[in-house]
């Protein structure tokens, strides 16, 4: 079964044809009031696996389309619960293409038996560009691999920014950054009177052509959140291709939406992902 799906073109990031997406939505009891698409999220190797006892299903996300713009706070995998990205729609006999902007929510996922896909094929006029497909794949993986930071580290940020005002301020500046990483010393629980020392690393895309000063200012706003929590902070801004694997192994990607704090929203305020 898996081999047949692979031969039919099913891969991670495959987008269903409109009629198939509508049929699948009806099957799942999904009744959206917005423009939507159905996107395969299973890893390609899992789709191709013929062992139905191990891999009986294909994971599919119903995603919202029709966005006017992409929110920078939800791009580049900055938010573990929400992703803004795009795919390419070929039009006019494939001679032209349009960018379609979409929103993917982490919990809008369905598990569909492979047999349902066996007589169908993806929409070959819709595809993710390599860059966006990689980010989609990384976003999916990050749902299960987010690093746990010391509880005391999280508690101190919450204690000194109970209403989330500093984090909200930092969030507004996040569009300039593609990622945020922390190296915490000591990486452990500490007692009152002790302080964390934090190396804060902000990254920008390799092809970044924006205002470096604005990116540096955004990074500084994030540092202010940590300094308000009585942490000693040093900062560094770098393009993604300037960061070595050795450096990344020392750092943890930082997600504000993983912190427990009293701002209390259904989708917690988040700045770094």
Structure description:
The protein is an alpha+beta fold and 273 residues long. It folds into two domains: 2-145, no CATH class; 151-258, 2-Layer Sandwich (GMP Synthetase, Chain A, domain 3). It contains nine helices and ten strands. A hairpin with a 4-residue loop joins strand 3 and strand 4 (96-105). Residues 258-273 have low confidence and may be disordered.
Name the descriptors:
GMP Synthetase, Chain A, domain 3, 273 residues, 2 domains, disordered C terminus, alpha+beta, single chain, 4-stranded mixed β-sheet, elongated, 3-stranded antiparallel β-sheet
In short:
The protein has 273 residues and is α+β, with helices and mostly antiparallel strands.
- Count of discrete structural domains: 2
For the report, how would you describe the main beta sheet?
Answer: 4 strands, mixed
The assigned structural class equals alpha+beta
Number of strands: 10
> Distance between termini?
37 Å
The run of helices and strands is HHEHEEEEHEHHHEEHEHE
Q: How confident overall, as mean pLDDT?
A: 86
Query: Tally the helices: what do you get?
Result: 9
Helix share, percent: 25-40%
* Radius of gyration, whole Å: 21 Å
- Give the strand line-up of the largest sheet: 9-8-7-10
Quote the beta fraction. Answer: 15-25%
Q: What does the overall shape look like?
A: elongated
Low-pLDDT runs of 5+ residues are 258-273
């Amino acid at each position: 079964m898996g081999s047949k799906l692979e031969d039919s073109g099913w891969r991670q990031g495959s987008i269903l044809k409109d009629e198939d997406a509508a049929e699948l939505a009806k099957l799942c009891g999904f009744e959206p009031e917005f423009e939507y698409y159905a996107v395969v999220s299973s890893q390609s190797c899992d789709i191709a696996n013929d062992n139905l006892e191990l891999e009986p299903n294909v994971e599919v996300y119903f995603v919202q389309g029709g966005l006017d713009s992409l929110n920078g706070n939800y791009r580049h995998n900055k938010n573990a619960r929400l992703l803004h990205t795009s795919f390419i729609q070929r039009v006019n006999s494939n001679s032209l293409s349009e960018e379609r902007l979409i929103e993917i929510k982490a919990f809008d996922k369905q598990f569909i038996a492979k047999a349902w896909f066996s007589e169908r094929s993806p929409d070959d006029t819709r595809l993710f560009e390599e860059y966006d497909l990689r980010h989609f794949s990384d976003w999916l993986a990050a749902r299960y691999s987010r690093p746990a930071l010391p509880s005391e580290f999280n508690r101190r940020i919450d204690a000194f920014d109970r209403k989330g005002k500093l984090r909200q301020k930092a969030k507004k500046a996040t569009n300039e950054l593609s990622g945020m990483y922390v190296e915490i010393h000591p990486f452990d629980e500490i007692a009152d009177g002790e302080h964390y020392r934090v190396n804060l690393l902000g990254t920008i895309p390799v092809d970044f052509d924006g205002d470096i000063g604005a990116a540096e200012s955004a990074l500084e706003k994030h540092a202010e959140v940590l300094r308000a929590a009585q942490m000693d902070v040093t900062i560094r801004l770098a393009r993604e291709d300037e960061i070595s694997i050795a450096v990344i192994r020392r750092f943890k990607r930082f997600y504000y939406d993983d912190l427990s704090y009293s701002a209390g929203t259904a989708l917690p305020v988040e700045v770094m992902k």
